Amino acid sequence: MFKFVSMRLLQSIVVMLVVGLIAFGLFRFVGDPINNMVGQDTTLAEREALTESLGLNDPFLVQYGRFVSNAVQGDFGMSYRLRQPVSGLIAERFPATLELSLISAFLALALGVPMGIYTALKPKSIITRGFMTLSLMGVSLPTFLIGILLILFFGVTLRWLPTFGRGEVIDLGWWSTGFLTASGLKSLILPAITLAIFQMTLIVRLVRAEMLEVLRTDYIKFAHARGLSPRLINFSIALRNTLVPVITIIGLQVGSIIAFAIITESVFQWPGMGLLFIQAVSEVDIPVMAAYLLLIAFVFVVINLVVDILYFVVDPRLRVQS
Amino acid sequence: MKIRNMLAASACVLALGAGVANAETFKWSFQGDVQSLDPHGLNETFTLGFLGNVYEGLTSYSSDLQIQPGLAVSWENTAPTTWIFKLREGVKFHDGGDFNADDVIFTWKRTLTSGSDMKGYGARMSDIKKIDDYTIQVETPAPNPILPRELVFYYMMDKEWSEKHNSVEATSPKAADATATYAAQNANGTGPFILAERQPDVRSKFTRFDGYWKDIPTNVTEVHFTPISQGATRVAALISGELDMVYPVPVQDWKRLDSAEGVRPLTGPEARTIFLGMDQWRDELLYSNIKGKNPFKDQRVRAAMAHAIDLNAIDKKIMRGAAVPAGLLLAPQINGFDADLNSPYAYDPEKSKKLLTEAGYPEGFELGMDCPNNRYVNDEKICQAVVGLLARVGIKVDLNAQPKSKYFAKVSPQNGNDTSFYLLGWTPSSMDVHNVLYNLMSSFDAEKNTGQFNYGRYSNTRIDEIAGNVEKETDQTKRQNMVAEAFSILQKDVGYLPLHQQPLSWGVRDGVTLAQRADNVLDLRYVVIGK
Please, what are the domains in chain A? Predict the structure, then answer.
């Protein structure tokens, strides 16, 4: 087990190096950061000097090499746009994104899994049809549209909830949390729902499909024949066998919730990493983009690792083999 | 029950707030945050305008962009290259330090350090001598009639504060560590508002400076600034009552603000002129089907372009009638504007076709166009309209609209002005005509730094000569005559195709009054919150 985990962590370094390499190869096509960093009266010579001093004239492999050797020493450079150390910026934004993602993932799971089970067990009920229609809307409406609609209804028309931002936050050491204030919690509701809807509908459909599949198998029929209670069959036997593919997908989805909170964050001006990244893209803030992409690569590697470990827990056959 | 508690709590807070006499909080939003709080870090209008509430220059703008005394009470041009400034006595910085001649000299030296983006303004002065604590003598390298105007955004810093915090050099984007960027994250000016809290990109809070030297209209005691990047969210936050003022408001949302209760759109002409430029220097256009020659070298073709573009249609259809069609590259608010020359080229597609035929392009030609899509008000839509209008006279335009970072990377001189036809907007940072002559109309010369934004490299030696003279001419009438001559030449040459001054687009809550400055700067000194 230890060997397995350490191998995976080693692999993650390779993944991150490759992601960084590709990222630096692409940065040349994002545009010119200099124009956003100086005023219109700045002379051509000064612009050229700034380009040179930032090392932007070097071939991308040289830039990449410099980035990696600094990053190894924990120095991710200075943000071009905010003129602060990138590591500090990301540390400042990370709690916002993580709190939002975790709440969304929790919402998606807490609602999605029971809904999926219900729709599989009672495929003909009216409630099932309602759930399925809703989930169809959830997968087909784009996130930003859901966000704007929620803002218009709950923020502008009813004025129950704030339309943007994170509300008041409380600092617990280096972690800033919005969980402890009323405005923080109120601010969390709309973005969390927006981010959760797509994931939730996906989970509903996945659990339902897997569950229907399992319910048709012989061992379930046999369990019924043995006279086991339907409750035991459905939740202990059928559900457990449903979970392996569900965990895989959910794991990847948690990664994408963190990585792709970008749209939700920019619609709600949620001060997280996604917003930081999207603004870095529009202003060609290369150090921020590079650090963010590496961090996301790392998050995905870790999540995959956790998923693999969960397989061991859920599926006894894997334990025997190893 | 919980909700009821929350409501009760917030009612208490409201009651408390009302109890304090005249405590007014003003909450506003812009589409982005300032990059740095260092007043010499970035010479850009929003940044400098934002910091103008905290820092001040020797001179300042009134709400209609007239020069008025700031930290200097008076100034005098005693010899062609010598100015005497009398400084205001009794002015305090926010940390309690006194403002005096040493601070001016310190500031000047600081703007010349390598990280500074205000070097250009610093270089307009060759020496500053202290005569006494409140009098300075400024030497300029050449006669400079607009020096007081160029000092508006030249913000004064406290020598002692900067030394104490190791900030005697302007923070550059390259600065290595957090101590070197102290001035980028903290502020200590003489302005009416003190920076109380700052989280870049999230929020900045300001409180009123009780020791401010001047009587100003505002009754605001606390300011909350939040950047909101999405236009729709910004507008929603205004309508929902969470914010008192937002800008820019997308043009298509004006109607919504009009019909929504408790808010209103605030529009007016901005000093920014939007225009089209054409590649007039290459022997063959980069993006065209005409090979072996450059049609834009022929004045008739440029005139044909000018007569093919219907400025009124663009104004009505795309700018909702809020733009001001322009004949000059200069807005009426700019020093040196000449109303007699501001009539646009007449819209006359027939004449345009005739000119094209005369020039040898009866069937028109194909042309590539570069356009930003997130820089100016409705920039991409304007370009699309231009494409449609030019198609009517046979010029088939292939539009390449890109985000500003990519657009400027392509068309700027660093990349060899890789464009044949482009859209650009310009507000002279000094609010003076010389800036336009120098940056847009002078021939491109990297050594002399002239024509840096003359992406099509229009060139006329007489205009170059005039640009050099206007810079030094202290006699206003002579200066204005030269300006008129330069613009007449440009118009005859059809060197550029001016479109319009774009509208300012702000959204304000009812009950809030403020001054809408033509340079798109919100000056908190004029913000008054009514009942």
Answer: 2-72 (no CATH), 90-319 (1.10.3720.10)
